[in-house]
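Hi U.,

Before I forget, here's the chain from the pilot set. I'm dumping it here mostly so it's searchable later in email.
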Amino acid sequence: MTATATLDEPVVNALPSIAFDPAWQERSRVLIGDLFRRSASIYWTDLLLSSAAAWALTAVYFTAPAWSALQILAFLGASVLFFRVGTFIHEIVHMPGGQMSGFKRAWNVLLGIPLLMPWVLYRNHIEHHNHLQFGTPADGEYLPLGSSPQTETLKYVGQAPLLPLFMIVRFGVLGPLSWLHSGMREWVLTRVSAAVSNPYYAKRFPKRDERHLQIVEALCFAYLATIAFLMWRGSVSVTQFFMGYALLAFTLALNWVRNLAAHRYVNGGGRMTMAEQVAESINITGQTWLTVFMFPVGLRYHALHHMFPALPYHHLGEAHRRLMAGLPADALYRGCNCDSYFTAVRELWQSARQTPQGQSAMRAWSPGSGRS
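Structure:
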């Protein structure tokens, strides 16, 4: 049952209790059991071609006449392709530790370091699939935007242009300073060493990965120091710096706003069953040009991903088709489909509009709420 709340209490759980039907759950596994094997050739081909095209368009963007159609098209094309390449970070964190190690390093070289987003910072994503943490304040990738007033959604979207600034400060200032002070290092490892959308997330970075983190921190700092040196020498102009900032900001914003259609975001902070997690997730099934650009590398099948996180992106489309053809009409999975990005965002906005300030679920996330 949905928990009730007074005007002075946040909603505990805005979803009805749902239990998995073992029969269709097992049927799902049977239908897609042969699709869990990754194709290294597909991963490498996609990564190399997409990143090469992204960097080539970036060169055009920086050299084309200012505000020309060529420059604008190159900017948009580079952003979309960088977004696509960046999405592989999601695939990487779901790979076993020793699998495709060369691919992980290549991704960092081609994108992770120059765009200040090394993949190790996304280790926390695995918690997003933990049934004890999904949809709770301990989930770094969940904010209850659908069960909070609309101002919370506007605040979320408004952060997008500032994301590159945060990354510059993280790797150019906080990281290096924290090497010199143990107390500050602990704060950095706890508060700013995870790729999250939940600003209240606070969990110490895993000790087993600290050496990896220190290496990529040093590389990112060296990259930023090189840019600063080139600007001091006059080889890179202030205009070019802000052109790069704009490109990075737009690329990150694509993912930031795409994330609005990943879940319904109506949970109030309580733990959720696996079935509730799937019901809270969304597949974007409409075949439109926007879906192709906004949901690369399998992101459109987010409910499917939460059912089977180990499925590689190049098999998600086939898995979805099999499930839709082979599952019964009343299967929970069918209710996760949404025909477009705009439909999903509209439903989120309407849900937020119907939430009074006094019943904002965001109060369970913010400091001083009394949560553990």
